[in-house]
## 1
Amino acid sequence: MKFYSVILLFLLLSCSINERSIKAPIKEKSLNVLKKIKKDPSTQNSDFIEYLVKNNDTIYSISLTYNINYKEIISMNELNDSNLIYPGQVLLIPKNNKIIKKKRKDFAEKKVSVKWTSPIKGKIFYAYDPIKNVNGIGIFSDGDVYSIDVGKVVYSGDGLKAYGNMVILKHNDDFLSIYAKLASVYVKEGQLIQKKQLIGKTGFIIKNKTGLHFELRYKGEPVNPQKYLNF
């Protein structure tokens, strides 16, 4: 009996050690990043926001909220993978300062080298206007919404109030497309999407009017969708 008790105790200790070895390094890394930033005399704390990760957050939804490149969040927090976040984790988010605004100007002036199909047929009733912080276009329509190109679903949900039901597709290392104000979503996170694949249905974009809010991001920064899409 004593022998079996010793074996049982050994197994419990082993499980505890394994659990700590899996979970601890991730949390420890987040804390170390925070300490390193705060100790760095060349870095002002006012240049960063400490963001507490919530349920259903992704790197892409967070980057959308703060209008920054998702790669900056990954690099700043020394994440090995864009999915390596969890509720309760603290992430450092660089503020949308003059440097980021300068990058936006550079992206806006970049020559367009790609053309995609429109996600939906309809009438554009508001246009991209970075001065007024309008990061996409509004399209009046009542019907199905399609992907502009092949990609992977990196976000599907309604965690951002201003966007309602939303799908974000990652097409490559440079481009993301964003489909918002959807009444229904037919895809899920991690799913690979084909060009012109049905991804959702339009919802109310303004009072009594259905449509789609659509954005396109180049290296995390908003660009004018009308320069990239064939309507």
## 2
Amino acid sequence: MALGRAVVLGAAEVGAASKGIRPGDHALVPGFSWAGYTQHMMSYRRQSVMKPGVAAPGMAARLGSTVDERRGVEYRELKSRDLLNRLNGSPMPFGWTVNPYRGCEMACRYCYARYTHDFLGLNDPRAFERTIYVKDAERGRLIAEFRRARRSEQVIALGTATDPYQPAEGRFEVTRRVLEAAREVPGLSLSITTKSTLVARDAELLRQIGASSEVAVNLSVTTADPALARRLEPRAPRPDLRFAAMHALAEAGVASRLFIMPILPLLTDDEPNLRALLVAARDAGAVGAESNVLFLRPGTRETFFEFLATDFPRLVPEYSRLYAGSAYAPPERAREIEERVRRLADDVGLATRRRAERPDQRAPRQLNLTW
């Protein structure tokens, strides 16, 4: 079975959010122009040159056949040449991305990457979590790509658009093969972001990588309330299980940090929840925490508001006000939330920073795991 990779399209949004870019700001990211237009205009431009239900030029030939079906999810192969994607001129805290899967079964209501399935001709937002594309991880090619990335001295980020340890990984093990190749190339800087407890499976492998490279795992947990987590992230493991995975990584000597991303105003931004998350991370051995307030780009916005209307209808008017004409909450509201996180982190004795405080990777630099 020949599986492959398509160009990662979601990472651009991470970069924009990480620098606090708002409509009217100017920033260039691969495949996008942010000069003087809102994200809505950007979406309009993209849709104007794409036909609904038709894969973007160059993508159709990469779409492979179905390789498995289970739990109401179809897995298909995605062919391409490379798995590592280099970001040029991007204001992001990493220089390379690896997304072993396209689409994500976690089904997070707020996921910004849903729009990427449009480029595959799949315009139903639910297709993002029901049709998962599996990419190739040929060992020799991966080792060569990692060697090339190492020369840049930039961070390689796994899981910038989709979770590398989503349920598909238990069947296909693409992420594990990526990490096995990384083990053969000392001197890398790796950052892995996941909501999955499956990452604990690779604790020993990550420890081995850490013997000659820098590696950190970012466990994303938005709420300590398992009932709310099930509504926000239907197929992600319970929060307590994610902290158990964090503890397992710490026991193996693998640096891990808490990602409170995104923080959802009026849902997860209250002091008791944030404190509970920070305490749990500290007790699980996390080296720090990082946070960012909800970012609602077109494609995600519609899905998220549909979810609110069903599960939290009383919040629809306030969210409509907060995100009126913008993908971002008002700066003063975001600052208030981020300051709350910082104060609580200080109280519990855990290092913290906002996503915007990460160093960008336009100039080569090493990942600092201690901050």
## 3
Amino acid sequence: MLFSVIGDEVASGTTGKGQDDMASVIREVSLGVHPDAVWDALRDWGAVHKRLVPGFLLDARVDGRDMVVTFFDGSVVRELFLGADEEARRVAWAVADGSLGLTHYSAPAQVIPDGAERSRFVWTADLLPDDLAGTVSGLMERGLATIKEAREERV
């Protein structure tokens, strides 16, 4: 079964192969902040808990290329840094272990210019098992609301 969550809609369908596919969750928020300022906070891998999502992440400890993060509810997750693209203003990571029960999670987040002084922050997550899509979507929405509040407050 293929599940996609885009906006507030959940659509499901089959791939025709008879196999389960991962869920894809796409969320975005419009920010009244210049894209360079948002990108600067996103790419600061070891300080996202202070600069991008304060309160959503309580702590972030860099361990080599990885980061061990503590969420608002006390859950701890090891995130693997996959890469950053300065030109595209995009960071990608995966979850190596955590308490949600995910067997796979990979995500890019991207800052896209939206006019002269505005941005769109787009976060996509591919995950297994697909029945966790609703939970992950809710966490992403909370994270994006935190980004909006934190970044627009600094303007």
## 4
Amino acid sequence: MLDISFLDLFQGVATLAAAEPHILIGRLFLIGLGLALIYFGQKGVLEALLMIPMGLGMATVNAAVLFLDDGRTGTLFLDPLASGADAVMTVLQIDWLQPVYTLMFSNGLIACLVFIGVGTLLDVGYVMQRPFTSMFLAICGELGTVIALPLGLMWGLPLNEAAATATIGGADGPMVLFASLILAPDIFVAITVVGYLYLGLTYGAYPHLVKALVPERLRAIQMPVEKLRAISGPEKMMFAVVACVLLSLLFPVAAPLFLSLFIGVVIRESGLTQFREVFSGPVLYGATFFLGLVLGVLCEASTILDPKVLILLALGIVALTFSAIGGLLGGYALWWFTGGRFNPVIGIAAVSCVPTTAKVAQKIVSQANPNAIVLPHALGVSISGVITSATFAAILISMLRAG
């Protein structure tokens, strides 16, 4: 008979038994965290479209560690540390998610595909109807990025890693992925996972923050009726084209993101129904699925466990908290400037998690005053936030690459 021991047969258990204590604890913790993401995603506390595949990938990859031929431990999912043409080609033929990672993650393609899909869902008419209000609040919503950068430096992060982590304050997942790939490729997995985990919490956490900072009488303010001219499709197309070219001229390093976002808007407004259905459906949801799955698989304990992760966790929550506070402060400024006619809750939509924060603003206002409608204003602010978050990321990348 074959002389096979229990641990030889069940290698996932064997690698746990042979692991160093911190890796053992890390794997068990990440398995539990993955299961928690699935549970809270299914319950609607977190974004199910992203968190369920991320959670299952995270739990599975930490359970499925085995001994490789050369004595190392690893998985058959992907190897983010593979370098050199020969090594990459070998892994591409073995690890089933390696083609997705190599051909879509390491070059930022997955982020651009998500941005195209998001662009097809955005109605820039909300921005064009109230451009100054929307952009002012969106800029205020970058307060978290501005604060997190020097704070990261104070906590010992190198400038490039502090800048990449600070982009979490923009609350735009694809942009965080794109920026961290350029600025801090060694820890982009940790930054992106932290960013997406916190973005998943915004729908549940921000209402408590808003209610703590904005009294009910102000939350109940009904926005005055406005006589606004309807924005035509050609006008929206012209806005998207001009914004794309101008921003790309100013910040070429982020041109892939600008083009991806605005080509989606152009597809939406040009009447290209076939393209719109493809990019707003299969492409967007397919990219979101693989984004969540691959991010989860990248959370293998030996890869992601790093003392910096605790700093990233703290810095990420600081960035998103102060971005929300910045948006609300901007809302208070407009409330004062308009003589009390502007609802400051709209400022929370400056955290550009489209359309989540806009819906959060409307939900909070409706609880205080069922007749108050702020969603059109909030959508304009939230869409502007997408533009400003990409712009701030482009500024950081340009400054660091120039330095």
